Amino acid sequence: MISIGEVARLAHELPEVTEGERFGHRTWVVAGKAFAWERPFSKADLKRFGEDTPPTGPIVAVAVADLGEKEAVLAANPVAFFTIPHFNGYPAVLVQLAKAKKRELRAALVDGWLACAPEPLAARYMGATRTHD
Questions:
Q1: In terms of C-beta density within 10 A (0-12 exposed, 13-18 middle, 19 or more buried), how is residue 94 classed?
Q2: I need a labelling partner for 110 at 20 to 30 A (CA). Which of 32, 54, 69, 73 fits?
Q3: Residue 72 is part of which domain span?
Q4: What is the DSSP string of the chain?
């Protein structure tokens, strides 16, 4: 299982990431925008699951560029990536770390970072990663 510590390590591999706390949970930020954060279920979230068993273990929310990308991410990996009613209409997905693969999580973090990073920073990062591929 991927730990929150591993999420932090992967997030900090990206340029200009800072870590803070929002609503009492670890949050990773670029240029003042949160692109990933711990997202345990609230009592209201748990109530909405009704008789369905909610995903277990640590959960991380990751930003996506738009709702179209959200649908694509959810369709590509429905085992580890999901959403809840609270996130309806919001460009982010939830990741059940117990079911995610490191490669998938890293890709989601990079995509979330790209969705939130200023364009010049994102372009520099993409140029740098292309030269290393």
A1: buried
A2: 54
A3: 4-121
A4: ---HHHHHHHHHTSTTEEEEEETTEEEEEETTEEEEEE-PPPHHHHHHHTTSPPPPS-EEEEE-SSHHHHHHHHHH-TTTEE--GGGTTSSEEEEETTT--HHHHHHHHHHHHHHHS-HHHHHHHHHHHHHH-
Where residue 19 sits, what CATH number does that domain have? 3.90.1150.30
- Asked whether the whole model's pTM tops 0.70, one would answer yes
Q: Are 4 and 100 in contact (CB under 8 A)?
A: no
- The pLDDT tens digits of the residues spanning 84-102 come to 999 999 999 999 999 999 9
Residues recorded for the chain? 133
- Say if CB 8 and CB 28 are below 8 A apart: yes
SS3 26: strand
Please check whether residue 23 lies inside any domain of the structure: yes
